[in-house]
Structure to design on (501 residues):
């Protein structure tokens, strides 16, 4: 008779009589293969379930903690298991720890204590600094979260002295909320040989070398100024005339990797009042791509807005509608450098301002292309406008000089006319009214009905008949004269009575 054993009975036998080798062997021979298979299955299942749960919690922790770091630490940090690792460095002097996942840049950074690195390249900027610091003091972004970094280079004026004066005033305000965070000033020359006039800076021949030098200056400043605790980087030209005080918040809340406003400039009335200024913000076109392919020189740089390079690109500046929504966005390939807000991670991961020909562009336009190549979004706001100062070109200056000379000539002519009019009034009496009165008096005393014996006959004809008539008339006149002379010689009788009395 074959014995049957339940699993419980097997456990009982094994546990109660482990020393009974014969019983144990009998059971192993009877049910050994099935028991070993079930034990292996049970053990593998437990390992699989345990591994799955462990993996799930690890992945969940990474996901929640990462999202919490990006959103400012909001997540499940209150649970010990989900708290990020922070090394204890209290006993290690001179060592600082930064988790860069905490500085990714938030769209509401002003509420989450996001620090901004405010970069300002300066060259011969003494005359522009007063207006710049006025804008800076009026910004609504918390000043203590703004770190200023200046690069003074190749200047011939007192840029450094004026900068120090304004910084001293800014950091000495009684209201400490108006004071800025860290401030750094760097001075380095890059051998900029191009002048600072409008025509020098914007002349076609100077664009390639000038932009490559500017790219070097920007990269140098950004590399030495960017700290691990910065979440955003804001680049701003010093010669902006009008900009909203909330420009940082206005750009930041779009939550884009790189974003720029539209830039225009005011003009004198004789030039049309306003004009698009920054044509370096654009969308790539097929004509632009083909043009780049035709430039065989590896150092060639396409510069926008010049007839020498017809790219037919869509410019951010020309998309402006005064009544348009300032929140509208436009994807860009190249960008201008007047006002750029970018997340700090864009620069930390390697994007920069190429000081060489990158896809036939350099500096800020190449920065836009490079950032796009690195899968960052580059955005412009066509209806959100800031205003650059008006700088007259060489042609404008010539026309203004002509206008000044013309105005001077008109004033001189007006002065001479006024002088001669005054002399005329003093030196001569106006007798026109007197002559009018006398003329009326003379004409009133003339008798126009009186007939005259001697009538003047004028014959203007040139034919012979008229000539013979003229001779006949002359003969008659001579006869009359002879008759008159004969009568004058006649004696008048004494008894002559002309009245026949």
């Amino acid at each position: 008779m074959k014995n049957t054993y339940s699993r419980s009975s097997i456990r009982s036998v094994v546990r109660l009589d482990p020393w009974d080798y014969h019983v144990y062997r009998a059971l192993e021979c009877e049910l050994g293969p099935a028991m070993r298979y079930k034990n292996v299955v049970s053990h593998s299942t437990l390992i699989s379930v345990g591994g799955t749960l462990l993996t799930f919690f690890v992945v969940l922790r990474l996901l929640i903690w990462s999202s919490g770091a990006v959103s400012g630490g909001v997540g499940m940090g209150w649970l010990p298991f989900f708290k990020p690792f922070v090394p204890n460095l209290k006993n290690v002097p001179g060592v600082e720890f930064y988790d860069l996942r905490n500085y990714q840049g938030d769209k509401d950074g002003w509420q989450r204590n996001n620090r901004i690195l405010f970069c300002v390249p300066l060259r011969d900027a003494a005359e522009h600094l007063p207006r710049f610091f006025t804008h800076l003091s009026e910004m609504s972004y918390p000043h203590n979260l703004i770190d200023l970094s200046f690069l003074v280079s190749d200047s011939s004026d007192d840029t450094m002295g004026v900068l120090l004066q304004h910084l001293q005033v800014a950091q000495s305000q009684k209201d400490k909320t108006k004071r800025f965070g860290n401030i750094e000033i760097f001075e380095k020359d890059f051998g900029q040989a191009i002048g600072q006039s409008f025509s020098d800076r914007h002349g076609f021949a100077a664009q390639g070398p000038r932009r490559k030098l500017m790219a070097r200056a920007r990269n140098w400043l950004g590399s030495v100024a960017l700290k691990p605790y910065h979440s955003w980087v804001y680049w701003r030209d010093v010669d902006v005339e009008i900009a909203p005080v909330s420009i940082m918040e206005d750009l930041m809340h779009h939550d884009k990797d790189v974003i720029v406003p539209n830039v225009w400039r005011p003009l004198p009335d004789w030039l049309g009042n306003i004009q698009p200024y920054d044509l370096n913000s654009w969308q790539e076109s097929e004509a632009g791509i083909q043009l780049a392919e035709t430039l065989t020189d590896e150092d060639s740089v396409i510069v926008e807005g010049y007839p020498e390079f017809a790219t037919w690109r869509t410019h951010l500046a020309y998309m402006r509608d005064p009544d348009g929504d300032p929140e509208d966005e436009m994807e860009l390939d190249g960008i201008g450098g007047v006002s750029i807000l970018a997340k700090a991670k864009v620069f930390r991961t390697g994007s920069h301002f190429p000081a060489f020909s990158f896809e036939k562009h350099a500096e800020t336009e190449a920065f836009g292309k490079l950032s796009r190549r690195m899968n960052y979004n580059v955005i412009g706001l066509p209806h959100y406008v800031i205003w650059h100062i008006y700088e007259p070109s060489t042609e404008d200056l010539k026309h203004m000089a002509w206008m000044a000379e013309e105005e001077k000539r008109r004033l001189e002519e007006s002065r001479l006319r006024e002088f001669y009019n005054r002399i005329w009034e003093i030196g001569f009496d106006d007798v026109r009214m007197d002559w009018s009165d006398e003329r009326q008096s003379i004409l009133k005393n003339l008798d126009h009905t009186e007939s005259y014996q001697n009538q003047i006959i004028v014959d203007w004809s040139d034919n012979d008949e008229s000539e013979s008539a003229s001779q006949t008339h002359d003969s008659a006149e001579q006869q009359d004269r002879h008759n008159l002379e004969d009568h004058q010689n006649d004696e008048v009788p004494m008894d002559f009575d002309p009245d026949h009395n």
